[in-house]
C-alpha cells in the first residue's frame, strides 16, 4: 500500500459567522509528504477534520482514495488524524497502545513499543497524567504506528522539546521509506520541518493560497537589494511582497514565477539577488498587504 | 546541515560533487542510497532522489539496477575541469572588481599571490 490520494472541490465550512474554509480545491497525490501551513485560525484543523470525516463540509466535495469518506468505514479505517494531545483514551499508555492495535488494521505493535521506548514514555502511567511533552510523544507514536495510507498529524510536535522533535523526524522518515504513505503534517515549526516536505500547502483565512513543491517555493521567494531607484525600476510588474529601506538602499522581497529569469536581469541591472527561507516566505504571504 | 534558501536537491548535488572532488568518494565507489541519505540528513526522500538523479543526468553517478548508485570513472577529472572553467569568472573576476573598488593595485595582488607560491615551494 502506498497511500491514498485526496481530492476536494470548492470545500466550504463556517462556524456561525466565522468562515473556516472558503472554497478549497485540493489535490494530493498518494505517497507524498505534505506540509500544511497556515497561521492560527487559517482553517488547517477544519480541513484535516473534514478529510478524516470527523465532520461534514457545508458544501463542496471530498474524495479520499476516490470515495467520500463520510460515514464510510472502509475508507475511514485507512485514515488517521492525530491531533495535538487530544483524542487519547483514558487509560495507561500500555492499554492505549493495546486498544489501538485492535482498532487499526495496519497497526504495528512492536514498532509502537520501539517508538514509546525511544521517546521514553512510561508505559504504566495513565495517559491523562502524562506531561505535555509526553502527551505529544504519545500522539507521535500513535500517528506513526497506525501506518494509515492517509496519515494526518495536526500540530503533534507542539509540546515536544528539540531533541524529541529531531527523533520524531528521524523515525517518521525511516518508517516512511519502508512503508510509503500519504502524510500531511501541520506545524508551526516551519524552518525545522521544511526539509521533510515534498510539497507545501499554505492556507490563509480559509483559502488555499499556495500549493507547490518545497524546493519550488525555495526558488520562488527572492530578495533584491540595491539603490532604491534601480530597485523600483526592477520591481515594475513583479509580485512584491514587502520592502525595506535603509538610507539610499532598498531591499524588496518578491514572489517570482518559475521561468522568470530574475537572476540574469538582476545581474544586468547591477542588483544583488538573494533567496528567501521558506519560513520568511510563509510570513510574507500570510501577513501584510498580500493577505487580504 | 542544509541552508533553507537554495533548493535542497541542488545542495545535495553540490555536496556529493565536493565529496568526489576531495576524494571522500572515489571513482567506482558506491554512494549512500537516497533513502539512507534522506533519513540521515532528515530530508524528504523524493527531494534527495532528485539531487542524485541530477548527478546521474550529468554523468557523475551511474545506476546499477537493483544495486544502487556508483561514482562514474572519470567523474573527478570532469568535475575538476568544470570547476577550473568557472574559477576565473567565479573567484578571480570578483576579486579584481573588489580590488578596483577599494583601490588595491592589481600589481599588489600579483605580488601577494607570488609570495604565496614562494612559501609553498619552500615547504
UniProtKB/TrEMBL annotation, chain A:
Keywords: ATP-binding, Nucleotide-binding. InterPro entries: AAA+_ATPase, ABC_transporter-like_ATP-bd, P-loop_NTPase. One of its GO terms (molecular function) is ATP binding. It comes from the Bacteria. Gene3D superfamilies: P-loop containing nucleotide triphosphate hydrolases (3.40.50.300). Coiled coil: none annotated. Pfam families: ABC_tran. The keyword Nucleotide-binding applies. The keyword Nucleotide-binding applies. Residues 6-230 form the ABC transporter domain. This is ABC transporter. The lineage of its organism: Bacteria, Bacillati, Actinomycetota, Actinomycetes, Micromonosporales.
UniProtKB/TrEMBL annotation, chain B:
Residues 6-74 form the HTH gntR-type domain. Keywords: DNA-binding, Transcription, Transcription regulation. GO terms for molecular function: DNA binding; DNA-binding transcription factor activity. The keyword DNA-binding applies. Pfam families: GntR. The keyword Ubl conjugation does not apply. This is GntR family transcriptional regulator. It comes from Actinorhabdospora filicis.
